[in-house]
Specification:
The protein is built from ten helices and two strands, in the order αααααααβαβαα. By secondary structure, it is mainly alpha-helical. The chain has two domains: 44 residues; 175 residues, no CATH class. α8 packs across α10. The longest helix is centred in the middle third of the chain and has 21 residues. It starts with 18 loop residues before the first helix and ends with a helix. The protein binds a DNA duplex (21 and 21 nucleotides) through α3 and α6.
DNA sequence: AACGCTCGCAACCGCACTTTA
DNA sequence: GTAAAGTGCGGTTGCGAGCGT
């Protein structure tokens, strides 16, 4: 059984989008939405484009909340950390960067970050990044963790962010993280040990039904799990809260 | 000024997965 | 249960801008 093409390539326009096409697509989606069907959208909007092309144009370029260029050091750190952990799952990595698309992250990685890290590893980077902590298991693949005032960078978190998935020592750590829809201001006090449970509940409620479930696939040390509820020990909630803070 | 090279980015391709009939 | 349709995603390509010679 062959796969039917999504559109007739002979009758659709290809190549760069014109300002008029952008305007038409933008106006249509802002007025009527996508209707849950990209294939029929170009016809309804009066565009001679493939539905996939429209979807790509909207998601990667026309969406109102898109940011282009100007990646920050913090974003570099998130990209490097997640890439090291899960590989080239760009859409997943992009979902942790406000206003970034998978295509943007992918391009940024392929054109800049990869080379930057290569030079850094070879010691040829003229401006080597200062890492937040270098005590992780992969000190040869260093990246900076952003400073989080009043909230320490725990060595175990660094290990979680930097260790290969094969280094599991406990049961699978499956957790849900929120992907903030807007820039969120987090204060360290909101994540104090006294309201960890509340913060965790909040996190869970924020993502319920949103589909932003995250399975990191790495193990969670049993001794840390045992410390849950036991004073100052770092438990899963702590990591969830910290990482939630970290990515916002 | 002209040419060639490099780099960054937008867009396309094709496969895998999910949903629908 | 199965095939077709629709969607999402990672890899790749092509083009234009910038730069050096």
């Amino acid at each position: 059984m062959g796969r039917a093409p999504c559109c007739d390539k002979a009758s659709v326009k290809r190549g760069p989008w014109s300002p008029d096409e952008d305007k038409t697509l933008c106006n249509f989606i802002l007025t009527y939405g996508t209707g849950g069907n990209w294939i029929t959208l170009p016809k309804k909007a009066g565009l001679k484009r493939c539905g996939k092309s429209c979807r790509l144009r909207w998601l990667n370029y026309l969406r109102p909340d898109i940011r282009h260029g100007g990646f920050t050091e913090d974003e570099d750190a998130v990209i490097c950390g997640l890439y090291k952990e899960i590989g080239s799952r760009w859409s997943f990595i992009a979902s942790h960067l406000q206003g970034r698309t998978d295509n943007d992250v992918k391009n940024y990685w392929n054109t800049r970050l990869k080379k930057k890290l290569l030079h850094s590893e070879k010691g040829t980077d003229r401006n080597p990044k200062k890492t937040g902590s270098t005590s992780g298991p992969n000190a040869d693949f260093e990246f900076p963790l952003p400073a989080c005032p009043g909230f320490p960078v725990h060595d175990n978190l660094l290990a979680l962010l930097t260790s290969p998935a094969g280094n599991n020592t406990g049961e699978s750590f499956v957790q849900e993280f929120p992907v903030p829809s807007t820039n969120t201001t987090c204060s360290s006090s909101s994540y104090s040990s006294s309201n960890t449970t509340n913060a965790s509940s909040s996190v869970s409620s924020m993502v319920e039904g949103s589909g932003n479930q995250l399975d990191y696939g790495f193990g969670f040390p049993e001794d840390e799990a045992a410390a849950a509820g036991g004073g100052g020990g770092w438990n899963q909630d702590n990591y969830v809260n910290y990482f939630s803070y970290y990515i916002c």
